[in-house]
Amino acid sequence: MLVLGIETTCDETAAAVVRLDADGEGSVLSNVVLSQVAEHAAYGGVVPEIAARAHVEALDHIIERALAEAKTPIRALDAVAAAAGPGLIGGVIVGLTTAKALALVLGKPLIAVNHLEAHALTPRLTDRVPFPYLLLLASGGHTQLVAVRGLGDYVRLGTTIDDAIGEAFDKTAKLLSLPYPGGPAVEQAALAGDPLRFSFPRPMQGRPEPNFSLSGLKTAVRIEASRIAPVTDQDVADLCASFQAAVVDMIVDRTRAGLRRFRDVAGQPSCLVVAGGVAANHAIRRGLQRLGAEAGLRIVTPPQALCTDNGAMIAWAGAERLLAGLTDGLDTSPRARWALDPTAAAAGKKA
Ligand code: ATP
Ligand code: MG
Ligand code: FE
């Protein structure tokens, strides 16, 4: 089956065509992503109104390109999937409404995909990962450890109590006058730095509940930076290296705690999947590889283009849902907030 996927929840306008064969094998026929990074760079973060307008301008062309690159006539599609949340509501409305119009015109099913579910299922597109597995989702907006037990069956084991990990990279970059997005800039600067020069805190270390906390670490960087004047390139490199080392230690420790919790709710995981833009970070990957070796667990990181926001992950989640007979009505509403695990949402924890 052929599914078109549309992603507009944040600052990427994206569309893709994915095929799911009868034997469960998935393939990406096209994956077109237009990043709005340049539009938001001047503000050091995503501006919702600018994002929504940019999605309106770009989406038609992006969909046309995705269909053309996939050499798929629009009538050959079996379904149209769009991210229906969680995310910036203006963008979500653009993507979901476009998907509804296409589904209506084509007479094909609409699949309203949870953006987080799409991140969670992506490793099954490239690596055919079996359920259950542990997911570490780390991006600019999300930091979660999730037990993926089956399609639509997710238990959130832990999350951040303040900033997301990617957000902490972005804020640290901003206060050190490094470019946006901050993750790649901090990682690059850290290459030339001394990770031992500053001993930043390792928040939540050793706690049994697998939650994260980043804001204290970010503040510690600000305090150390304010003590140095003038701040040289070497100081910036050392601050970045020390910050990154603290983040890696925390991620490894928190994921270890998540693994323990996982066994209580889902048994033995088939692997640990790392997704979201932060998964690009090599120091974090190395830290998790060490944890994997220690725990006898395979670490799976989908290719970078599928780790950051994209249309293929939406199309793939749509295909998995379509196969399971899970389609949505044209009256489906866009959702700014949409927890993967309804019990965690009911408990009032932050997404
Ligand atoms: P969402 O949270 O909805 O998935 P997003 O746009 O914030 O949306 P992504 O596009 O997946 O998420 O990832 C972007 C984030 O990843 C940014 O915060 C960026 O700084 C961070 N990031 C990217 N590369 C790196 C890196 N090498 N090291 C650390 N963080 C990185
Ligand atoms: Mg993004
Ligand atoms: Fe995302």
Automatic annotation (TrEMBL):
Fe cation binds at H115, H119, D309. It catalyses: L-threonylcarbamoyladenylate + adenosine(37) in tRNA = N(6)-L-threonylcarbamoyladenosine(37) in tRNA + AMP + H(+). Residues 28-316 form the Gcp-like domain. Its EC number is 2.3.1.234. SUPFAM superfamilies: Actin-like ATPase domain. CDD domains: ASKHA_NBD_TsaD_bac. Pfam families: TsaD (PF00814). GO terms for molecular function: tRNA N(6)-L-threonylcarbamoyladenine synthase activity. Keywords: Acyltransferase, Cytoplasm, Iron, Metal-binding, Transferase, tRNA processing. InterPro entries: ATPase_NBD (IPR043129), Gcp-like_dom (IPR000905), KAE1/TsaD (IPR017861), Peptidase_M22_CS (IPR017860), TsaD (IPR022450). Binds 1 Fe(2+) ion per subunit. Its cofactor is Fe(2+). PROSITE patterns: GLYCOPROTEASE. NCBIfam families: gcp_kae1, T6A_TsaD_YgjD. Required for the formation of a threonylcarbamoyl group on adenosine at position 37 (t(6)A37) in tRNAs that read codons beginning with adenine. Is involved in the transfer of the threonylcarbamoyl moiety of threonylcarbamoyl-AMP (TC-AMP) to the N6 group of A37, together with TsaE and TsaB. TsaD likely plays a direct catalytic role in this reaction. Belongs to the KAE1 / TsaD family. This is tRNA N6-adenosine threonylcarbamoyltransferase. It comes from Labrys wisconsinensis. The lineage of its organism: Bacteria, Pseudomonadati, Pseudomonadota, Alphaproteobacteria, Hyphomicrobiales. The gene is tsaD.
